[in-house]
Amino acid sequence: MTASSTKGAAKPASTRAKPANKAESAADWVDGRLGLYTLAKSNLRKIFPDHWSFMLGEICLYTFIIIILTGVYLTLFFNPSMGEVVYHGSYAPLDGIRMSEAYASTLRISFEVRGGLLIRQIHHWAAIVFVAAMLVHMMRVFFTGAFRKPREINWLFGFLLLFLGMFDGFMGYSLPDDLLSGTGVRFMEGAVLAVPLVGTYLQMFLYGGEFPGTDIVPRFFTIHVLLIPGIMLGLLVAHLILVFYHKHTQWAGPGKTEKNVVGMPLMPVYMAKAGGFFFLVFGIISACSAIATVNPIWAYGPYRPDQVSTDAQPDWYMGFSEGLIRIMPGWEIGLWGHTLNLGVFVPLMVFPLVLVAIAVYPFIESWVTGDKREHHILDRPRNAPVRTGLGAAWISLYLVLLIGGGNDLLATHLHLSLNDITYFVRVGFFVVPVITFFVTKRWCLGLQRRDKDKVLHGRETGVIKRLPHGEFVEVHAQLPAAKLHTYTAHEQPQPLELPAEFDENGVKRKVGVIAKTRAKLSQGFYGEGTQIPKPTAEEHHEITSGHGHH
Amino acid sequence: MKKLSARRRHPLAALVVLLFALAATGGLYAAFAPAEKAQADSSVQTLAIEEGKKLFAVGCSSCHGLNGEGSSDGPSLVGVGSAAVDFQVGTGRMPAQQPGAQVPKKKTIYSQPEIDQMAAFVASLGPGPVVPGKEQYTSTNPDDVAKGGELFRTNCAQCHNFAGQGGALSQGKYAPALDGVDAKHIYEAMQTGPQNMPSFPDGIMPEEQKRQIVAFVRHTTNDEPNPGGLTLGSLGPVTEGLFGWIFGLGSLIAIAIWVAAHTTKAKKS
Q1: Chain A CB within 8 Å of residue B41 CB
Q2: Looking at residue B185, what is its pLDDT?
Q3: CA distance B152 to B149
Q4: pLDDT tops 70 at residue A549
Q5: Nearest Cβ partner for A285 among B163, B245, B248
Q6: Deepest in the core among A322, A352, A357, A445, taking most CB within 10 A?
Q7: Which CATH number describes the domain made up of B134-224?
């Protein structure tokens, strides 16, 4: 069922007779003012291909909506102030303790506001799942090559959403002014102070004085509820508009080309599916929030700069920055009376690099491979071994850093030495991604060989046949034509070649360093050992025509 | 007097005087010394020390030496006091199973009377913290939990975690979790500073504050129902992240696969 049907959605307004009923006349009224029919005609029958991995972005969208809905409710009761009060609320174990109004109002939300604790937990669980879903969504886009032309800009929008989502999450975590969030804000102060030359000025500017001061919570509040969500909302709309504009990518298969989209129409199929999925997402998040505590601020106690608890980690999406800090040796350099705090400054610089690597990847790949064509058919990850290897290497780096960030819990729960874990992570930071790259690449090549074998020799049926002369063979069955197409639809690009060393007149060409590097990288990407030549039709014919067995 | 005076140079005179002096001193001492109390103590206490010494010789002396003087395998126990013995043996940490970064808590192998006897023996080696009485560690004031919480966050949470769930120290050492620990043992730990823990003697942390901390720890680890549902171990954002990934996103992806697999029954071309 391809995308071309227009029947039933809307007839042009001009040819229309008298409105049949009230709904139609209302629709006519809106159309006259907003051009609804044209909009509906072009978009309601929009075709989307069907695959579960295409719904990961939906999880992001829905959790974002849940976060906004619950966030609005929380702002009705939260008091973003660092003014001091003595608590006399309903949570007895904190009775008579001095705390900020921010913390007291979070306690009030948790224990006195109707549904407050559940909403708080929905807000927080949804945030945890939101960022996780964005990362998985990006992995899907990455490993299938869906970021290639024309979708590079949408990839950047997605990256910015991830980046902003992480920081907005961090600020939300900092708002309640409990012992954990205060420790996080202190961590950030240390990071700001580690910036050479201007660190102390930046810190004073940001905190409005010495730590903790009274400004940081109200400032974070404005950024957390207004500035960043506003930007994210805009990016999200732009992201979705571009998805509509580019149309969705699809897996290779019979009848699917770079010029069409095969799937179901938005109205009614995806309206129903997506609408239903929204409620499923909301339901799962609510169930999580009803079952499990997240951020038990009452147990942490109010923040005081002289107190700290162990297990002070950020929410998981900032965990890799925690890991960077924890594994970095505490180096310091004293220069002309100034301290260059490398122990914090180096992680502070590596932190954005880890993220920027994601952002720039599409541009690097297209430059290296010289591929400037449009792509709407997705790659199977095994058919792009180098890209898949690089992605897996990035994920392994990220996981190694998460291990570093949670080293204390690993130490206590696996009965290991904290120091040993830290040494492992220090070495692993450099070694594990390299190993992962090569293992993944070889794995992909193995899968390509398997595909080739299946195409040429069919699949194993598990049926053992005894031949007249006594030999046993396993019967192989031919794959259906559709499968054969899917396994062989990918193209196998050739690496860029440097022009011949001497031109037609025998004059030595000047080849720049950049061009040489590019050719080298391209060789690494598509050259020898990066792809198993896929079976040709002739090979297939030759093998399958002759004898019955393989 | 003449008779006496005449015999004052008798060879035995000095001896007689000495006998008289000794008798007088002894008699005076017998009359004035607090004999009775000393008498009563020695009968029970000495017995306990004697018994404790025997137990110590069998169970402890291989590392701590026959008289608690210590060796290359175990520290000297002179001056650690009865509270240290009551904590270490009462929580099963001692006798130690094997050397290592830290001696873990395990099943207690001595009965309380036996522990008391060993404590008496070790206490006899030199003065040290005494096993606290029940009134010292049992809080009666309901405000103690809140005050204890503040003290706990200031003094203990950096190693034992905000909810007393323990935490890692360097080189395989750790601060143990405090759930299910006896109030007396918590108090004794603060008094004596076992293994890697600093000690908080009364001069640093008065008895009342220790009692408040005990009240908070007992409340947090035992009594409090958690308002938000499962605690996920009260270990902070690491377990929350795992839960969010596995049960949150994991079930959502499972549902997405289910939804995608159950598509509309449109006619297939």
Answers
A1: no
A2: 93
A3: 5
A4: no
A5: B248
A6: A322
A7: 1.10.760.10
pTM of the model: 0.88
Is residue B95 classed as helix, strand or coil in its secondary structure?
A: coil
- Residue B113's Cα: distance from chain center in Å? 16
Chain B, 97 to 126: residues with Cβ < 8 Å from chain A are 101
Give B153 to chain A, closest Cα distance, Å.
6
The alpha-carbon gap from A161 to the nearest alpha carbon of chain B, in Å, equals 18
Query: Given an 8 Å threshold on Cβ–Cβ distance, is A308 in contact with B230?
Result: no
SS3 A377: strand
Q: What are A464's strand-pairing partners?
A: A474
Mean pLDDT of A467-478: 91
| Inter-chain CB proximity B240 and A294 less than 8 Å | yes
Mean pLDDT check: name the lowest of A17-21, A236-240, B192-196, B216-220: A17-21
Helix B81-90 × helix B112-125 angle, to 10°: 150
- The domains found in chain A, sorted by start residue, are 1-45 (no CATH), 53-319 (1.20.810.10), 445-545 (no CATH)
Helices and strands (H, E) in chain B, number of each type: 13, 2
The whole-chain average pLDDT of chain A stands at: 90
Among A110, A121, A180, beta carbon nearest to B236: A180
* End-to-end Cα separation, chain B, in angstroms: 148
Give me the mean pLDDT over the A293-302 stretch.
94
Give the domain ranges of chain B.
40-125, 134-224
What is the Cα gyration radius of chain B? 32
The number of angstroms, rounded, from the C-alpha of A433 to the middle of its chain's C-alpha atoms is: 19
Q: Is B165 on the interface with A (CB under 8 A)?
A: yes
The helix/strand/coil state of A173 is helix
- Of residues A413, A295, A178, the one with CA closest to residue B166: A413
- Picking from B98, B145, B153 by the largest number of A CB atoms within 10 A of its own CB, the best residue to mutate is B153
Indicate the pairing of strand A472-477 with strand A459-466: antiparallel
Of A294, A307, A420, the CB nearest to B153: A307
pLDDT band with cut points at 50, 70 and 90 for residue A15: low
Q: Which amino acid is at B45?
A: Q
Q: B40-125 with B134-224: one CATH topology?
A: yes
Query: Nearest by CB to A313, which of B165, B238, B269?
Result: B238
Distance CA A371, CA A389 (A): 19
Model ipTM value: 0.89
DSSP state of B30: H
Q: Which residue of B has its CA nearest to A178?
A: B162
**Mutate which: A309, A398, A415, vs B, most B CBs within 10 A:** A309
| Yes or no, beta carbons of B168 and A310 under 8 Å apart | yes
Hey, are the CB atoms on A411 and B172 less than 8 Å from each other? yes
pLDDT of residue A546: 60
- Closest-CA distance, B58 to chain A, in angstroms, reads 31
Q: Which position has the higher pLDDT, A391 or B32?
A: A391
Angle between the A513-526 and A385-405 helix axes, to the nearest 10 degrees? 90
From residue A403, alpha-carbon distances to A66, A99, A111, A171, A426 in Å are 30, 33, 34, 23, 11
Residues of chain B with Cβ-Cβ distance to A319 below 8 Å are 237-238, 241
- DSSP line for A189-211: HHHHHTSTTTHHHHHHHHHTSSS
Task: Give A289→chain B minimum CA distance, Å.
Answer: 8
Is any Cβ of chain A less than 8 angstroms from the Cβ of B254?
no
SS3 of A476, please?
A: strand
Contacts of B158 in chain A (CB under 8 A): 307-310
| The pair of three-digit structure tokens given for residue B183, joined into one six-digit string | 């109030």
Identify how many contiguous H helices and E strands chain A contains and give both numbers.
20, 8
Q: How confident is the model at residue B8 (pLDDT cuts 50, 70, 90)?
A: confident
Considering only the top CATH level, what class is B40-125?
mainly alpha
- Across residues A472-492, what is the average pLDDT? 89
